[in-house]
Structure formats: C-alpha cells, structure tokens
Structure prediction request, 285 residues.
Amino acid sequence: MEQALHTPASEREHPEQSSTSPDPDTGDGRGPSVFSLTLASLQPGDPIQWLKLGWQDFQRCPRIGLFYGLCFFAMGHALLAVFQNAPAYVLALSAGFLLMGPFLCLGLYDASKAMQTHDHRPSLRASLQAWRPTKGTMGIFAGVLLILELLWGRASLVVFAVTFNTMPSTEKLLPQLINPENIGFLITYTIVGGLFAGLIFITSVISIPMIMDRKTDAVSAGLTSIRACLQNPGVMLIWGALITVLIGLAMLPVFLGLLIVGPVIGHATWHAYRHIVPVQTEDSA
Prediction:
C-alpha cells in the first residue's frame, strides 16, 4: 500500500507506459532500432516522380532555390579554376562537389519539409539555419565523408603517378587521356572513381535529410541509407545515374544550368527520402 502511494498516478493507470518498460522494437527501452524501420519498395519510375516534385517545390519558392543555385554555380567555377591549375585533382574534387551538395541542400530540404508538413513558413532565413539543431551529428557525418573524399583524392594521385612520368599540363591533358596508349589509365581511373563515388552515394543518399528530419544519429542515418540502396539497388542506381547526368549537362553552358538543376535535385532528394522512409513507420512503432 505504501509503495502504491508513492507511485505516480500515470504509472498506476498505465503501467505498460512506464519509462522502464522495454521498447517493443528493441526490447531494452532505448527506442526503436534503425533496423526496425520499414523502408518502401521502389518502382523504376519513382526517380522521375521525385524530380517532378522537386521542380514543383522550386516553382513554389524560386528565390530560395535560386540562392542555392547560385552557390552551386560558384562551386562549378571554383572547380574550373582547379582544373586550370591542378588537373590531377579535378575528378577527385568533383566528388567533393557532389559531397558538399547534400550539405548545401540542407536549406532546400528545410523548405520542402515546410511546404509538405506546414510546420513553418519556408524562408531563406529558416533554410540558412536548418543545420543548427543537428550541427553535432552533421559534423560527425561530414567528417566520415571527408575521409572518403581524401582517400579518393589520394587514390587519384596514385593512378596518375603510376601512369605518367610527369604530371601532364592542362593544354595537353585531354589528348593524353584519350590516347589509346592510356586506355589502361582510363579504365583504372574510372573503376577507382566509381568505387568511391558509389560508396559516398550509398552512404549519404538519404542520410542528411533523415538527420535533419528525425534528429537521428549519424550511424543510424548512414545504415538506413545503405539499407535503402541494398533493398532497391536498381532504382537507386537509376537515381544516382540521373543525378550524375543532370549535373553533368548543367555544367556544359558555363555552369548556368546549375542555377536550376542544383536546387531541383535538392528538393527532389527530400521527396526521395520521404518516399523511402515513410513517416508512418515512425509512428507505428
């Protein structure tokens, strides 16, 4: 009787909701496991639908999109400056370009989330502050991806050093690369670059919007992204190929296409995440 008097009323009425009761997903009271999330099964046409939704979001808040598009435009010209001064680093730093993109797109994710959930009004100011609630986790995840980027850069230099006695000049770079004698270099470089690019893509394709949206930790977000790619390898390959082709085409007219393509892909990535990790799975635990 005395013990019952000291027990909170909420626990006497609902003992199954006690803070010490085990979670049904994990069994230890620490909250649902990342492996308990039910991920969507995707269709080949889904990436096109994500792009359509991204374009709609861009049309609804064009000023926010154009601001970030201008950032992508500036990054493209920075990459061009690297090509003119250190061509061996171009392909590796292109990975850095794609690596920085998702973090730069945090503001676009915030705007798309605001328009989809109506939890706040989309604005440039709010988008610029979207990183603050999860800055620690974002920093950890960025550090992991930075390590992969540095490894890619080192591998690129090793391939160049093994193939060429001296680093080719910018003027003679393209003729030397397409020379039939260097076909082994092209194949090796493509394989090495593809491995690192694929690893970065698989780890980060939905991680950053998931961290921003669910405040999850970096490891859980990375594992969920890997699970999504392993569960839907064909569709995620199509999505990665679409991103690569669109960004490549957007670079051709002096990077002007990035003003539009960059933010559209950013918005589309948010919708890809919300499709792959439906909000109902969080509430059904």
The two ends are 34 Å apart (CA to CA).
